[in-house]
Design goal:
The chain is about 35% helix and about 25% strand. It contains nine helices and 17 strands. Helix 2 links the parallel strand 2 and strand 3.
Length: about 325
């Protein structure tokens, strides 16, 4: 079997991670070239992973079957269009593009050319998240509470906290509760960057009345990645970082004399496999290239997450003027 040849576009932190993972999968692909407008950075990453650095982007496209795109968000659309026009399969880091219109256009272009388009919402491949649908099967969800908080980093210069961090949880939310939010309330603050939201809180009402609360911060001195799901039947706590799941279930009350009773709860700790999400993400991408199948996280998923991001951003802007409450 001929292995697909893969090129990495972008030699920053994420591009270096992509090259690391792809070079660790020699049974699934061949990492052929790395390209970056900063040639020294490309050569450094390429040397670390025993591959070549392309001098020109066209040289990389001429030598590969597929690409991973890890350039700044503002360049996602242009770079992805180049890959699609050349008939290359592509994995684009999140968000899929700078705006949802560009995202939808990429979906249409990829469909026309018959190439695989996967979006790098890597949390879908977190082993704890992958167990969650099984745990929630048959349960009636009442509410979901997401917290994604980190210290400030000047590395992200072209995105606010909603499109940088909250978008991960928006994608998870869409996968668990399908359908666009029917109502959004949101507010934000920019204590560090000044012109881009660094802290955001959003409450989404979803089809069927499910409520989702999302908090995202890049000004919090502790890294927090949690999801709590309230259902009629149980309460589920998930820690993305620790990859830990606790399920609390109520048992029947025990009644005593004079109306007193004792309520017991059973707490289950779910075993979560130790697997790097980025490895699983690229294994999925390469599987879909070989089999011609639809990836777990499609271009349409990426565009849908970005549409909700834009609605939350609009709500935050309106909250600055005293509103901040949008309905579908």
């Amino acid at each position: 079997m001929t292995l697909p040849k893969i090129g990495v576009i972008g030699a920053g932190k994420m591009g270096a991670n992509h090259a690391r993972i792809l070079s660790s999968l020699p049974h699934l692909c061949v990492l052929t070239q790395v390209y970056d407008t900063d040639g020294a950075a490309a050569r450094h990453v390429a040397a670390d992973h025993r591959t070549a650095a392309a001098d020109r982007l066209d040289d990389l496209f001429d030598d590969v079957d597929a690409v991973s795109i890890a350039v700044p968000t503002s360049l996602h659309y242009e770079t992805a269009c180049m890959a699609i026009d050349r008939g290359k399969h592509l994995l684009v880091e999140k968000p899929i593009a700078a705006n949802s219109q560009q995202g939808r256009d990429l979906v249409a272009r990829a469909a026309d050319r018959g190439v695989v388009l996967q979006v790098g919402h890597v949390e879908r491949f977190n082993p704890a998240i992958q167990l969650l649908p099984q745990i929630l099967a048959g349960k009636q969800i009442v509410a979901l509470d997401f917290h994604r908080m980190s210290p400030y980093s000047p590395r992200i210069f072209d995105a606010d906290v909603v499109s940088d961090l909250m978008i991960h949880d928006i994608d998870i939310l869409h996968s668990l509760v399908p359908g666009s939010p029917v109502r959004i309330q949101a507010a934000g603050a920019a204590p560090s960057s000044g012109d881009r939201t660094d802290y955001a809180v959003a409450t989404l009402t979803l089809p069927g009345g499910v409520i989702a609360n999302l908090t995202a911060s890049r000004v919090t001195e502790q890294k927090v990645r949690t999801l709590c799901v309230t259902t009629i039947e149980a309460y589920v706590e998930l820690d993305y970082v620790e990859r830990r799941i606790l399920v609390s279930r109520a048992t029947h009350p025990h009644f005593a004399e004079q109306g007193a009773y004792r309520q017991e709860s059973v707490i289950e700790k779910v075993y979560v496999p130790d697997r790097e999400p980025l490895v699983a993400e690229f294994a999925e991408f390469l599987r879909c290239i070989r089999a011609g199948e639809t990836p777990l996280v499609t271009g349409a998923d990426g565009a849908a997450a970005l549409e909700t991001v834009e609605r939350i951003q609009a709500c935050i802007r309106e909250s600055d003027t005293g509103t901040g409450d949008l309905e579908a």
